[in-house]
Design brief:
elongated; mainly alpha; 2 domains
Amino acid sequence: MEYKIKHILATQLINDWSLKEMLDDIDRISILTIPTDIANYIQTKQWTQALTYFSSLEENEKYDDERRLIALWIANRLRHKIRSEEEERIQKMLEKKEQEEDEQWQKEAEERNAANENAMEIRKKTHSQWTKSTQEECNQLLFDYVWENFPLLKNGYDRSIFSSALYSYRFDSKFDYYRLSTEARTKYDQAVAYVETEIRRLFDEFQKNNIEQWIVDLKKWMMEHGLKKYTKGTIISFFKDKKLKVSELTIETIRVQVNK
């Protein structure tokens, strides 16, 4: 039984070591009394627990030099085992990570291809729409998008917001101005001019219809802020509070009426 345990021990130790002196190694080990639980650690590849035992044995001065050297020999092989398995673990981890990165790259590439194909389909539909539609239909198409998606323009025309609205439409619809025919580009240019004019017109109507109410609101606002003099500056501040970008004509009309 003792020899069998030592045979198992030697076999496990030199499994990755490529030593030709296996029988000599078994004989060398045979001078040690190896507890069964330590042999089991090695048999089940629990190298760290076994290393602790043989390291303490090698450092124990109550044993003769030969036994301590054999313990050192075993400890060194265990260290080699631990190091080899750690390197193998790291290698497998790196290979797994590389595989995951490859799979992620493949997935992203497929998603990009799908997105590109979808964008091409949307662009094709958009360009067909601008090519086949009448000018009036194009005007309405662009106006509806801008009016519904950029409600701040209902509070007064703002060039930066309007520019953002046009950019947003081109982005969402994959609109490519320079891939359109000359006729379709002309339709787009005229539609832009129409939408800008229509936004200004609608807000002009809005201003005319609300001047009387704004005067009432302005008087309340002045009282709330402890102001008494109706100046152009106070009227501008009032409209800033309401987040309305009214015209100079509206401001002057209100100033004249409240100062009568």
